[in-house]
Amino acid sequence: MSEDCLFCQIVAGKIPADTVLETDRILAFRDINPQAPVHVLVIPKKHIVSAMELGDADGEDLAACFEAAREVARNERLDSGGFRLVTNHGAEAGQSVFHLHFHVLGGRAMGWPPG
Ligand code: DGP
Prior knowledge:
By secondary structure, the chain is an alpha+beta fold. It has one domain: HIT-like (HIT family, subunit A, 2-Layer Sandwich), CATH 3.30.428. It is built from two helices and five strands; from the N terminus they run αβββαββ. The chain is globular, with a radius of gyration of 14 Å. The site of 2'-deoxyguanosine-5'-monophosphate (DGP) has 14 residues, from β2.
C-alpha cells in the first residue's frame, strides 16, 4: 500500500468505488470518467506503478488481472462482440494514476489507432 496512491485508497476502502469484482489479488471497478458504455478498471491490490515496474514476483497478480478482465468482459456481455484491454504507461500515453490498471472498454465500436 502506498499512502498517497488513489487506487491504494480505493483498495483500502477509504475512497468509494463502484466495484464489479473483487478477489484476494485484484479489484475491478467502474471508471469515474467512462469513455465507453462499459469502462471498468482492473487493478492489482498490490501497489505496482505501471507495466514498466512489473517484476518476476508479480506474475500471479498479473495473471489475476487478466483473469478478472475476462470475467468482467463475460459479465458485461462483451466477450462475443469484442472489447479493448489497455494499460497506459507514462506521460505520452496519458497515464494519470500511477498504480497499474487495465482499462476494459466496450459496448461500442473501438477506433484504431487510438487517439
Ligand atoms: P490512466 O489515464 O490510464 O492513468 O487512467 C486512470 C483512470 O482512472 C481514468 O480513466 C479515470 C480513472 N479515475 C481517476 N480517479 C478515479 C476515482 O477516484 N475513481 C474511479 N472509479 N476512477 C478514477
